[in-house]
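Issue 218. Parser rejects a valid record. Input:
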Amino acid sequence: MGRSIRGQSAARFDAARAAAMAGVWLVALGLGGCASGHNGTYVSDAGEVPLALTFIYKGGDSVRNQALQEVVDSFNEDQASVRIQASASEIGADTYEHYLLIKDAVGEFPDMLEMESTEAYADAGVIAPIPEEIASRLKSPAVIDGKIYAAPLYRELPPAILYNRDVFAKAGITELPNNWDDFLSLCERIREAGVSPIVVGGKEVWHLAYWTDYFFGANVYVDHPDWNSEKSGGTVRFADADTLAAVTDMQELWTRRYVNPGWLYTTNADAATELALGRAGMLYSDVRALDAIRQANPDADIGVFAPPDRQGRVVIRQSSQLEGIALSAEAARVPEKREAFSAFMSYFYEPEHYARYLQLVKGLASTKQEIDYDNDDETRAFIAIAEDSRAKHALQMNEYWGDGAMPDGFRDWYLGLLQYTLALNRPNAGQLMDQADEQWALRMSTP
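Output the parser choked on:
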């Protein structure tokens, strides 16, 4: 086996950190000056003020940001000795991780932060294991070398099929599919009724990840959760029958003309509109699509179901276990800050606060204690799918960690080339998977 993914993650972090530092120094030299601050105990003329903990979380999602900021503000109002200074990542940063690296380079790395690349930051020693009193509350956190480095904010509801009941009625469909053949027959009936069976927002290549994750989950990961580590070890290939089927099964939806003809020019928002207006029968997406559907057509009659695989199993995407709130290694060395972190996370997970947060983000509790909250029928349908004891679960291909971590950038590369396979059949499915084998090996060997 070649260079390990674990070694790569730490090396990439160090390289990215050095690049960010170099960029900051160039800016500083150009400006001829710098700003400075201080950390620790703050004292004014009136005496000691509350202990401050800086907190950065990922921006870009206004609903999610509002939900988190509400808890922060409530905590600050209730606490006299601690104040959380929270802010979302600034618009304009290339990526959230790049934003964090810049903060690190200028000496403004936060005391606590929302984490995406948890394993890389843990390997680099930038974040510390979270306190046991918080870790013990979590339902199924990611364990890295026997330690828990992030407290998940919530568990995401899995994607599902949202369908327009009026379109189904027009096609004479009265029953939901029990297996994949039933699903294909259902698509055919909708097409014969003069409506696109499925709408895909393929202009934004990330939208293809919904169906990609479904087919890789059903054909590969649900039965072989160690596939990524086996791939890195050289014992399996993308060109093998099961992984090849993940592409050919997906491609079949296109070759049978079950996907809207203009999918390549359809945005994610457009896809919700097409479904809402009855110009498509189904949309495979997440629970957040409901808001866009209602905005496009408040009267749309929408149902929700999980697509069955060829064996009749319900295979759903498991929520990421790696993402969550982390404590910086520097802050963890200060007992008062470590205690303040625990105080905030305990407050966050208290049912009266957590229920409000979960209701806003439409998620499930990441704690062992279940949290109930009121919601609409469609969201409850997503929740029922997530909690179905018969369902099989699989992570996204890039959500595994340790030896199962995917080489950096591979998923984006794959989705980009998949777009050509679906649109032009160039490369065809077999050629795509041959190139995937080559790319995986190449990225494994690159620091």
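Fixed in the parser; the record now loads. The first strand starts at residue 43 and ends at 44.
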